[in-house]
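From the methods appendix. Each design record in this collection lists the tokenized structure first, followed by the designed amino acid sequence. Records were kept in a plain field format so they could be parsed without special tools. The example shown here is representative of the layout used throughout.

RECORD:
FOLD TOKENS (125 positions):
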């Protein structure tokens, strides 16, 4: 029995979500409806420990995710960034540097409390 070849859907516009935490950077590329097309993270690329939180690791994660997303025919993307991580700025720049991809908009979606939960006690180092 011949295996049925899966046809990848063609998506012209996408959204790049960059979650930059203090320990890692996760990049997810979705279509406009929010269905995930591709994802990558610094940890999944083999960076371990404190190297995961570097700007270089974030840049590699973006390049990997965008290469996977290009297979779906993504031409234009919007960028949504969340979190305070060190790879944040580098990740944004490297999305714009990818050949054949145009950035339409940029938005910061970091959640901010309107005086919700009490923060943890201050660290004494």
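DESIGN:
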């Amino acid at each position: 029995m011949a295996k049925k070849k899966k046809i990848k859907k063609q998506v012209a516009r996408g959204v790049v979500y960059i979650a930059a935490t203090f320990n890692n950077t996760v990049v997810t590329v979705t279509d406009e409806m929010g269905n995930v097309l591709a994802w990558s993270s610094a940890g999944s690329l083999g960076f371990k420990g404190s190297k995961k939180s570097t700007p270089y690791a974030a840049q590699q994660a973006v390049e990997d995710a965008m290469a996977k997303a290009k297979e779906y025919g993504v031409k234009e993307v919007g960028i949504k960034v969340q979190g305070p991580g060190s790879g944040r700025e580098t990740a944004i720049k490297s999305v714009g540097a990818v050949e054949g991809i145009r950035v339409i908009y940029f938005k910061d979606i970091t959640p901010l409390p309107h005086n919700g939960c009490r923060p943890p006690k201050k660290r004494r180092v």
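APPENDIX NOTE: Strands lie at 13-20, 25-31, 36-41, 76-82, 102-108.
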